[in-house]
Amino acid sequence: MEKQKLNTTTIYILSVLGLSFCCFLGLGIIPSAISLFLSNKQYKTAIADYENYDNIDAMKTARIVSLVVFIINLIMVARVFYLFSTIGYDGFMEIYNEVIQQNEQTQ
Q: Percentage of residues in the chain with pLDDT exceeding 90?
C-alpha cells in the first residue's frame, strides 16, 4: 500500500500570511487560527493511522510554526486591546498623526 503525504504547503502559506498581517492591528490571527486548526486536524489524522502517512515530521514542524505565529498574533491582539483601553481611539490617532508628520519632515 502506498503511503499518503500530508499537505503542509497550505499551512505554511497561511502561517506566513498570519505573520505578515499581525502588524495590521492583529488581523493575522484569522489566517493563523485557520492554519493552526488545519495542522492539528491533519496531525491527529496522521497519528491515528501512523503507518499510512509519510511526512509526519514535516507536519509536526508545520504545526509548531503555525502555533508560534498564532501566539505572536495573540500577543499583538492583546497589545492592541491594551492600547485602545488605556489611551483610546483619539490618543491612538494622535500618536499616528505625529508619526506621519515626523516622516513627512524627514523626507
A: 68
Phi and psi for 53 in degrees, rounded to 5?
A: -120, 145
User: Alpha carbon of 76 to those of 13, 38, 89: distances in Å?
Assistant: 20, 22, 17
- 71-99 residue pLDDT tens: 999 999 999 899 889 998 898 899 889 99
**Alpha-carbon distance values, 42 to 4, 47, 101 (Å):** 12, 9, 48
Q: CA–CA separation, 68 vs 47, rounded Å? A: 21
Domain limits, the chain: 9-106
